[in-house]
Amino acid sequence: MGGLYRFTKENKLQKTKLHKTAAVFYSAGIGDALLLTPLVKQLKKDGYRVTGIFTSPYHVHELYEGTSLLDDKITILSKPKLVWFVTRYSLNKFDRIYVNYFAANKSNILAASKTSKKVITNREVKFKSSTIPNLRYINPHENRSDAEHNL
Asked: What are the helix (H) ranges across 1-151?
């Protein structure tokens, strides 16, 4: 993540972020990945730098080869790789992370909460021992498809 340096009113050199950043978890198959495409397109339209976090063993990341939809791709297929992700991208690297219904397990939600200022999910997750202050649950509307929700 690059940065731009500027002087504040107090003549202090301060590093500022060049882009708003977002990440989207992909954890299921090709159909689920296609349903997340409207969300990614809207994030790009809103000026976000979008990272795809692939936890799916079905090679879903190959759908985005040769496209400009995702700026970065991270593949996480094991617990050690998830720990690496949290360590590497800790301290709120992302402005927001979207964790869809299938990816909303405890380890993914905790990893997202450690790497993002805001975590947004459409699956109600209940933890017995802790609450996550930056987790925002969006209640799915009845009679709407997943694609419409992702818009």
From this structure: 30-35, 37-45, 79-88, 106-115, 146-150
Q: How far is the CA of 123 from the CAs of 32, 56, 57, in angstroms?
A: 15, 18, 21
| pTM, rounded to two decimals | 0.80
Q: What is the per-residue pLDDT across 74-87, written as a single tens digit (0 to 9) for each? A: 999 998 999 999 98
Bridge partners of 7, per DSSP, are 13
What is 26-60 written as a DSSP string?
Answer: E-S-HHHHHHTHHHHHHHHHTTEEEEEEE--TT-G
Tokens 């805001």 belong to which residue? Answer: 118
Q: What sign results for the dihedral spanned by CA atoms 111, 93, 33, 54?
A: negative
